[in-house]
Amino acid sequence: MSTVSSTGNSVLDKINGVKAAASDKTTEASDRFLKLLVTQMQNQDPLNPMDNAQVTSQMAQISTVTGIEKLNTTMGGVTDGFSQMQLLQGASLVGHQVLVEGKQLVAGTVKADDGTSSTVASGAFDLSGSAANVSINVIDAAGQVVDTISKGSQTAGLHSFQWTVPSTMSSEGLTFKVAAKNGSTDVSHTSLMNDQVDAISNSNGTLNLELRNSGSTAYSKIKVVV
């Protein structure tokens, strides 16, 4: 709780500091304008003096300019504060499993109740509509289809699958390809791979997750957080 509170305060302090800086800049700009206006009035043509409309117009111009400067400076502070809050929220994702678009089969060791262990690769796919027949080709590092998983009929939405890697085969470089059909018509889909969040970063206001297999990935590209 103390960490969240401290970070929250630092964000507010940053924004308040920017507001103070904006106020100082606005005051300086106003002072410069008033000095110029007084000088202009002192040196005006007596036969053609400035009227009230001209003075009012110039006052309105400086008010508009300084107002925009103050707004821009304040918004910059708000943006910086929002970026810090994004990093704080993103930090809670470190260590979590996620699903991101991709066709890599990520394998891990699974231990059965009897104590034996096996290597299991897993993936997922998202169907845009229901499909009467869904199958998944498992492809090795050499590009050869080594197995086909039949999933039968599936509804629209997210579906996961697993495949046990034979003890005689390497789990490195495995990929998959989904085929979803209604008769002879293809059903559009998105292939999704499992990944893990190792770190987070912020680039130009965009929150990025550093994924173990996919590298730097924008948070908006994450489909599911497990």
Please explain how this structure is put together.
There is one protein chain. By secondary structure, the protein is an alpha+beta fold. It folds into 2 domains: 2-91; 97-225, Immunoglobulin-like (Sandwich), CATH 2.60.40.4070. The chain has 2 helices and 12 strands. The chain has helices at residues 2-42, 52-91; strands at residues 97-101, 106-111, 117-127, 131-139, 145-154, 157-165, 175-182, 185-186, 189-203, 206-211, 215-218, 222-225. It is elongated. The two termini are 24 Å apart. Residues 1-8 have low confidence and may be disordered.
Quick recap of the structure?
Helices cover 36% and strands 39% of the residues. It has 226 residues and is α+β, with helices and mostly antiparallel strands.
Oligomer classification: single chain
Total domain units: 2
**C-alpha geometry:** elongated
End-to-end separation: 24 Å
Q: How much helix is in the residues?
A: 25-40%
Extended strand count? 12
Rg on CA atoms, Å: 31 Å
Q: Under the CATH scheme, which class of the largest domain? A: Mainly Beta
Low-pLDDT ranges: 1-8
> Can you count the helices?
2
